[in-house]
Design brief:
By secondary structure, this protein is of the alpha/beta class. It folds into two domains: 133 residues, Aspartate Aminotransferase, domain 1 (Alpha-Beta Complex); 228 residues, Aspartate Aminotransferase, domain 2, CATH 3.40.640. The chain has 13 helices and 13 strands. It has a seven-stranded mixed β-sheet, with helices on both faces. It has a four-stranded antiparallel β-sheet with strand order 9-10-13-12. α6 links the parallel β3 and β4. The protein is globular. The structure holds pyridoxal-5'-phosphate (PLP). Pyridoxal-5'-phosphate binds next to α5.
């Protein structure tokens, strides 16, 4: 495990501060994939409302143990009954709960993948069957191999879009895999934590047909697209039977009252959502173009708010680059700890034009200095 990802993830400013000796808030963070211009304005209003209410009831009283108002809003948004929605302390909590409830003997993971699928399975001593995507196909696995994985396992995690690649298999392929999951009674967990960033994401999701796919559990998150990572909020969409079991397994009041109120507020701001979707298309294209022009970097395509990059410099690793950038106050995600990738890969979030400019400038500087040192 590389040093900055000591606790398994990007976005760890405290570790960055310990390593690079800078103030945690001073880092320009490309290592966590969060909308860079903050949560919807409705969230700030709600936060103010919490503070201004006499007696601070949101803080002094217990939260609703089933987040019913938030659930009702989500149910309306997705045209579902609330019985199909479980709210979690981030999608990360739901990943853990799913394994506790489904109790699979063998889990299939499509690599490279979000690290929590592996760490949650390993914690429970569950056997993992890996499926590695090929670099030539940008790590997207062929559908036949996915169906095979479904046949060999009790539960499969599939990133849709995947982290760290930002790509999805096609919707037709997804449906094929989901049908195979029903046939084999394998649980298919489709992690849609980043699907909101894709303009027609909702139409590419099984969420509208979830009644026809009783073996499928969908995961969503409000931490990236709505910039509520510190608040911790996610949800699962599944059959009422699974939802009930997930909730029964959950720590009481796991979703705190502030998170519930802010989540409710975030979902009211449709204008923000439209703005983020439009922004991300343009900003990703621009960042990809700028990075691709830097000699020694191979930038992969992505449909979401981050880019996977391979450093192609003899003898140089992403850990080296992370160190160079970290010293200058910029954080990137070293992807060497993703099974299926190697020490050359790193991931950067899509941010503002100004942030991109700084990243590109410092990256060029590091790589130019390295080349000069090598040729002298
Ligand atoms: C693919 C994927 N799923 C789920 C999560 C966890 O999201 P949350 O912050 O809602 O726990 C992450 C976090 O980075 C992720 O990358």
């Amino acid at each position: 495990m590389s040093r900055l990802e000591r606790y398994g993830h990007g976005g760890d400013r405290v570790t960055a501060s310990e390593l690079f000796g800078l103030d945690p808030d001073s880092f320009l963070d490309f290592s966590a994939n969060i909308v860079p211009f903050g949560p919807p304005p409705s969230v700030k209003q709600a936060l103010k409302g919490i503070l201004e209410t006499e007696g601070l009831p949101v803080i002094t009283q217990y939260p609703d143990p089933r987040s019913r108002r938030l659930k009702a809003l989500l149910a309306e948004r997705h045209n579902l009954t609330p019985t199909r929605i479980a709210i979690g302390n981030g999608a990360a909590e739901l990943i853990e709960l799913i394994l506790d409830v489904v109790r699979p003997s063998v889990v299939g993971i499509v690599y490279p993948a979000f690290s929590a699928y592996t760490s949650s399975a390993k914690k429970r001593d569950i056997e993992i069957v890996p499926l590695y995507g090929e670099e030539e196909s940008h790590f997207l696995p062929p559908v036949e191999r996915l169906c095979e994985l479904v046949r060999k396992t009790d539960l499969v995690f599939l990133g849709y879009p995947n982290n760290p690649t930002g790509l999805c298999i096609s919707f037709d392929e997804l449906k094929q895999v989901a049908k195979e999951a029903i046939r084999c009674q394998t649980v298919l967990v489709v992690d849609e934590a980043f699907l909101d960033f894709i303009p027609d994401g909702e139409r590419m999701s099984l969420i509208g047909q979830i009644e026809s796919y009783p073996s499928v559990i969908l995961l969503r998150s409000l931490t990236k697209f709505h910039a509520l990572a510190g608040v911790r909020l996610g949800y699962a969409v599944a059959s009422p039977k699974w939802v009930k079991r997930l909730e029964q397994r959950q720590v009481p009041w796991s979703v705190n009252a502030v998170a519930q109120v802010l989540g409710e507020a975030a979902l009211q701001d449709q204008e923000y959502e439209q703005r983020v979707r439009e922004w991300v298309q343009q900003a990703r294209m621009s960042l990809r173009m700028q990075l691709s022009r830097i000699p020694g970097l191979k930038v992969y395509p992505s449909e979401t708010n981050y880019l996977l990059v391979r450093l192609e410099r003899e003898g140089k690793t992403a850990a080296w680059l992370q160190e160079q950038l970290g010293q200058q106050g910029i954080l990137i995600r070293n992807c060497a700890d993703y099974p299926g990738l190697d020490e050359r890969y790193f991931r950067v979030a899509v941010r503002t034009d100004e942030d991109h400019e700084r990243l590109v400038k410092v990256l060029k500087q590091c790589l130019d200095e390295d080349e000069e040192a090598a040729s002298s």
